[in-house]
Amino acid sequence: MARVLHIAASPRGNQSKSLQVAQAFLEEYRRRTPNDEISYRNVFTMQLPDFDGLTLQAKYNFLHAQENSDAQLQAWERVEAVIADFKAADKYVLSIPMWNFGIPYRLKHYLDILVQPGYTFSFNPKSGYAGLLPDRPVVAIYTRGGDYAEAAHLDFQKPYMETILGFVGLSNIKSIVIEPTLSGGPDRTTERIEQAIVKAKELARSF
Ligand SMILES: Cc1cc2nc3c(=O)[nH]c(=O)nc-3n(C[C@H](O)[C@H](O)[C@H](O)COP(=O)(O)O)c2cc1C
């Protein structure tokens, strides 16, 4: 039995187009592998610990083998819990809207918690950085209001996600890009979503 973790990064509930395509993917996946466990997290409703001065001090104390106060230890335990939850999965489904050319701030918050030395990546002065996660399959579903086919230099969403996932060791990524979801008008949006759902179902058959 595989554990699939779906991380959604839109706060728009049933209105969310990235969620709609992710659900189509997961429905098909569930149909084919009914015994696998699918967990859902939405970064807008998860209790993400603040990544603030207290938490950062705990991080640096660990890095420099300094003692932590009780408050620092507790702050760090909350970070470890988020990392453990992510690492427990065998496969990942991410649904991500573009916000201001990049990713929604709550997803960035989640990633800032997740990407930690000794947990998800390592550093060695000789060999440099290495991801610590096994290269498990990822399906990343991206939505954008506009169309970036002719403006790839403005896309800080997909390249960023691929960079950060690769940094922690996840480079087996299949992507579905849904664009434009706003600027092309409702008919084009519907058409693009329908095309994305076909692709999602196809990917789900070999995930
Ligand atoms: C705060 C915010 C910022 C956005 N910034 C961009 C942007 O930079 N480029 C773009 O093409 N669309 C942008 N959009 C539009 C969304 O990417 C688009 O509506 C997408 O379909 C949202 O996905 P969802 O339906 O899953 O929430 C933005 C939307 C919001 C709410």
Give a written overview of the molecule.
The chain is 41% helix and 19% strand. With 207 residues, it is of the alpha/beta class. The strands form two sheets. Strands 2-1-3-6-7 form a five-stranded parallel sheet, covered by helices on one side. Strand 1 (3-8), helix 1 and strand 2 form a beta-alpha-beta unit. Helix 1 packs parallel to helix 6 (186-204) and helix 2 (53-63) packs across helix 3 (70-87). It binds flavin mononucleotide (FMN). Flavin mononucleotide binds next to helix 1.
Distance between the termini: 13 Å
Gyration radius (Cα, Å) is 18 Å
The helix tally amounts to: 6
- Measured as a percent range, the helix fraction is 40-55%
Q: Could you tell me the mean pLDDT?
A: 97
Determine the strand fraction and express it as a percent band: 15-25%
Number of spatially distinct domains: 1
Largest sheet: 5 strands, parallel
User: How many E strands?
Assistant: 7
CATH C-level class is Alpha Beta
Spatial shape: globular
Kindly name the structural category: alpha/beta
Determine the CATH topology.
Rossmann fold
What is the CATH H-level superfamily?
Answer: Flavodoxin domain
CATH architecture: 3-Layer(aba) Sandwich
Numbering strands along the chain, what is their spatial order in the largest sheet? 2-1-3-6-7
Which ligands does the model contain, each kind named once? flavin mononucleotide
N-to-C SSE string, H for helix and E for strand:
EHEHHEHEEEHEH
Topology:
Layout: E1 3-8, H1 17-32, E2 37-42, H2 53-63, H3 70-87, E3 91-97, H4 105-114, E4 121-124, E5 128-131, E6 138-143, H5 158-167, E7 173-178, H6 186-204
Parallel strand pairs: 1-2, 1-3, 3-6, 6-7
Antiparallel strand pairs: 4-5
Bound molecules: flavin mononucleotide.
Flavin mononucleotide binds near residues 16, 17, 18, 101 and 145.
